[in-house]
Write a structure and sequence with these properties.
Length: about 625
């Protein structure tokens, strides 16, 4: 195979600028069953019986019991329906099929809780195989009576082979009528948090060392209508007081993953929240006119900021303390809406200005982000105020990222608003919003990872003013019907999870970055590289992407270094473009780390075809 001969020059004489400490982060929303059926560890699907107005979806009869939704005498107004179960004989009851099954593993304790009434004797809870032949865990709960009572129980498995082939059942000791409300079951969670997060998914995220988390959307922030926006006040407090709401991706959200859970999630990852506030525009075009009509939404946002950052002496800070977290969270950025370039009414400039002024008046230190970036027509951008940052979204073909990345940010005004690339991701060929993409695997192949990495070199090279960036979407439940968008970074079912090649590309970039930017240039090919330096140690992080099918023999020249250690660490992700990871082959494409020697201020290195490489040099 013919090699290309190239020269990569790294000027280490003087850093050109600082790398933003928040550069690498995560973006999240309820899409693809990201929380319910994903990160949020709740295992019971349709726990509040609100998913379907007529039927108890995901619940079925055990032994011929009759099931119906009941609106009589609910637990409270947030739980307007219960499941009425008529058991004509002993040992009848109900089964829940979970989010495409349940994660059954050995010696695991599952915590159940539910509201119940009815004179049916003691209740038996099980986790059992769908055919009922294998009982994985079983426990008995004492009899209840006519009034609602909350019961809790623990089910513990013995030595079992891991499986998702399971249902959760509740059966009665005696014939009679039983009512159930908010039936919940949690496996062990990350940091053992009650109402917490799935451990394997958290581990994948923590391993990326994200500096921030952009939440709660995305489209999920906006909702299809104003009534279906992310109405944060309805997402806090005990889960039995959260009514949940319809999410714009076609299913109902429990809101078990509420505002406080987002913040705890940040805390657990050592990341900072980047808050999107609802800004008076929803996806189907409903909008709120700037002026007095918008005032209630401005207040809603100010109170949300107070809930996050206020001391316990403030109204909403006190509420946060009551909810279990007296310590305020650190917040620097507030984003006003999401993708408001879709708002054809032309109201964004006015809406943004009203939010901007109100936020700055009460919280002058906060940076306020506009959702219309330079990638949108100038006519759509905010003009009446100068946003502190612009959120730009890039969903592009890998080949387009590769072509554009060498120069993309060169035309930007470095002194202009910061750039927050709040959503980006490469697809191989077919755009996410086109129907043929539905027949492709949920997670992308190495081809997309090469495009992602190319774009990351561009963002990192400009990470003084591209202060934050985050791939989207983060999660996908790979079961049939679980996905609304591809490609996604992390795939899972009830039991297992894996990262796409793009996950490993991101990890290679986000976990090895210095605090100073160095000037880098390449002769002989377009520049798909970036170099940062750790000022304390002098360590250089050289990132280089070779997207082509020809090896690239590169002479690496370090200018302005007195010495360089002859041994260096090389981490590389390399694979043919069609190769990918999947549930069956979760680690087919992962990075490998090796040591190389013979490094000098001028040394040769050959980057293999279709590769993403990190070289760590000690200077
Ligand atoms: O990431 C998927 C969707 O893409 C987001 O919800 C939206 O902001 C964008 O259009």
């Amino acid at each position: 195979m013919k090699k290309q001969n190239l020269t990569l020059t790294i000027d280490a004489t003087k850093a050109t600028s600082k790398v933003s400490p928040l550069h690498y982060g995560l973006m999240t929303e309820e899409i693809n069953y990201s929380y319910d059926g994903g990160l949020y560890a709740e295992l019971i699907r349709n726990r509040a019986f609100l998913n379907d107005a007529k039927n108890p979806a995901h619940w079925s009869s055990v032994g011929g019991a009759t099931l119906m939704l009941d609106t009589e005498g609910p637990v409270n107004t947030a739980l307007p329906k219960s499941l009425k179960v008529e058991c004509m004989a002993p040992s009848l009851g109900v089964a829940n099929d979970g989010y495409w099954g349940f994660p059954i593993t050995s010696s695991t304790s599952y915590k159940a809780s539910f509201f119940v009434r009815g004179s049916v004797g003691a209740l038996t809870l099980t986790l059992q195989s769908r055919d009922g032949k294998t009982i994985y865990a079983k426990t008995r709960v004492p009899a209840v009576g006519e009034g609602w009572i909350k019961r809790t129980a623990t089910l513990k498995t013995g030595n079992v082979a891991p499986t998702t082939d399971a249902v959760f059942t509740i059966t009665t000791e005696k014939p009679g009528t039983l009512w159930l409300s908010l039936v919940s079951l949690f496996p062990p969670t990350w940091n053992n948090r009650p109402n917490g997060f799935r451990r394997d998914l958290m581990q994948l995220l923590v391993d990326l060392k994200p500096a921030f988390l952009r939440f709660p959307g995305g489209n999920y922030l906006e909702g299809n209508t104003i009534a279906e926006r992310f109405d944060w006040k309805k997402t806090i407090g005990p889960i039995e007081t959260r009514p949940g709401h319809m999410c714009p991706w076609g299913y109902r959200s429990t809101d078990g993953m509420g505002l406080l859970e987002f913040l705890l999630w940040c805390e657990d990852m050592g990341a900072e929240p980047v808050l999107g506030v609802y800004a008076g525009y929803s996806l189907r075009g409903e909008f709120v006119k700037p002026g007095p009509d918008l005032e209630p939404y401005i207040q809603e946002a100010l109170e949300e900021i107070e809930y996050i950052t206020g001391s316990v002496s403030t109204k909403w800070g006190a509420q946060r303390a009551k909810d279990g977290h007296p310590k305020p969270f650190n917040l620097q950025y507030v984003e006003v809406g999401n993708e408001d370039f879709f708002d054809r009414s032309g109201s964004y400039d006015g809406r943004f200005a009203q939010f901007f002024d109100a936020i700055k008046a009460k919280y002058p230190h906060l940076k306020v982000v506009s959702t219309v970036g330079n990638e949108q027509p100038a006519s759509k951008r905010v003009k009446s105020r100068t946003p502190d940052a612009l959120d730009e979204h890039y969903y592009r073909k890998a080949a387009d990222f590769i072509r554009d990345s060498p120069t993309h940010f060169d035309r930007y005004d470095r002194k202009g608003p910061e750039i927050f690339v709040g959503e980006w991701g490469a697809h191989e060929e077919i755009a996410p919003w086109l129907p043929p993409s539905r027949s492709l695997p949920a997670t992308p192949s190495m081809k997309a990872a090469l495009g992602d990495a190319a774009f990351m070199t561009a963002m990192e090279r400009h990470s003084d003013f591209v202060t934050m960036q985050c791939y989207a979407p983060l999660f996908v439940n790979i079961n049939p019907g679980g996905r609304q968008w591809r490609p996604d970074l992390i795939g899972y079912d009830a039991l297992r999870s894996y990262g796409a090649p793009s996950y490993y590309a991101l990890k290679l970039f986000s976990t090895s970055v210095g605090d100073e930017l160095l000037k880098v240039s390449l002769t002989g090919a377009p520049l798909l590289a970036s170099v940062t330096r750790q000022s304390k140690t002098g360590k250089l992080f050289v990132k280089y992407v070779n997207p082509g099918e020809t090896p690239q023999a590169v002479s690496i020249q370090l200018m302005g270094v007195k010495s360089v250690k002859s041994e260096a660490t090389v981490t590389m992700l390399a694979a043919p473009p069609d190769e990918t990871n999947s549930m069956e082959k979760p680690t087919q494409v992962v990075s490998k780390t090796v040591k190389i020697s013979g490094v000098k201020p001028e040394f040769a290195y050959t980057f293999p075809p279709h590769s993403i490489t990190l070289i760590q040099l000690e200077t």
